[in-house]
Amino acid sequence: MTNLIVSQGRIADRTERMIEGAARTAFALEKRYGIKGQFIGKAASSANDNWRTSLPQAKETLLALNQAITQGIKNGRRTVMLANTCSASLASLPVVAREHPDAVVLWIDAHGDFNTPETTESGYLGGMVLAAACGLWDSGHGAGLRPEQVILVGARDIDEPEQQLLQDSGVRLISSKQATVENVLRAIRDAPVWIHIDWDVLEPGFLPTDYVVPNGMLPIQIQAIIEAIPYKQLLGIELAEFNAATDEESNEKALAIILDIVAPIFDAMP
What is the CATH number of the domain that holds 86? Predict the structure, then answer.
């Protein structure tokens, strides 16, 4: 059974159509696989604000997401979380760490998201979420993830202080070019796996995202990695930062790419 959770409350969104992107992905999955999503949170306008403002604003949504994810994992259901921003992982990663302390997290993202309040230049909450889950700063939503459990895949836009934190903490990095099935399977071994995908990890042009970072991964590359992970090891997957376009043709093309990438998960469902 799959637990489809859809974040619809603002969690540090800096553009208007991220919430819609999560909802559109949910509707596409519902239509193709006949599953029903649990929509959580009330939308609010985007803003270019600091984490000190966006984090308290997101509290209600994050707590509700945490509760839904906890319930699904405790019931043995594989979780699919569709998130407007990576900041939603403040709700999911502490649950994974608590319920499956031996799990690894495949963080497939163009960014490291490993800044802290002391190192961040932008003040963006999404750029600090992984560091919070690893206990480098207190978000108020829990931690417990060990840095050595994290495998950062496809990251290429990393601040210098952030790079130092990643290195000092023992987070493993696999570049876009090195992100082969063999290398990923070697890294995860037989551990339970939680997958996070920020769509800006892709080579620009495949999906509309808030950030555009060249030299990214290809859709078929990510699909192959997902397909190679034994289904019994997969705890869940979260998909973030699809910035829905204003025309239907672009959205249909983007959703087709997303559904193709995650198809191995749903096709393997008993």
Answer: 3.40.800.10
Mean pLDDT score of the chain, rounded to an integer?
97
Question: Across residues 157-179, what is the average pLDDT?
Answer: 97
* DSSP reduced 3-state for 145: coil
Domain count, the chain: 1
Task: Return the DSSP state at 256.
Answer: H
Instruction: Specify the pLDDT at position 257.
Output: 98
Q: Which amino acid is at 147?
A: P
CA angle 134, 155, 171 (to 5 degrees): 35
Q: What is the model's pLDDT at position 199?
A: 98
- For residue 134, count CB atoms less than 10 angstroms from its CB and return exposed for 0-12, middle for 13-18, buried for 19 or more: buried
The angle that helices 89-99 and 59-74 make with each other, rounded to 10 degrees, is 30
d(CA 181, CA 83): 25
Residue-range definition of the domain harbouring residue 146: 2-267
Nearest alpha carbon to residue 157 among 125, 194, 118, 115: 115
Q: What is the mean pLDDT of residues 51-56?
A: 98
- CA gap 51, 118 in Å, rounded: 12
Q: Are 171 and 148 in contact (CB under 8 A)?
A: yes
Helices (H), 58-155: 59-74, 89-99, 129-133
For residues 228-244, one letter each, b for 16 or more C-beta atoms within 10 angstroms of the residue's C-beta and e for the rest, the string is: ebeeeebbbbbbbbbbb
pLDDT at 268 over 90: no
- On the question of pLDDT at 79 being above 90, the answer is yes
- pLDDT, tens digit, for every residue of 129-162? 999 999 999 999 999 999 999 999 999 999 999 9
Closest CA relative to residue 127, chosen from 210, 202, 218: 210
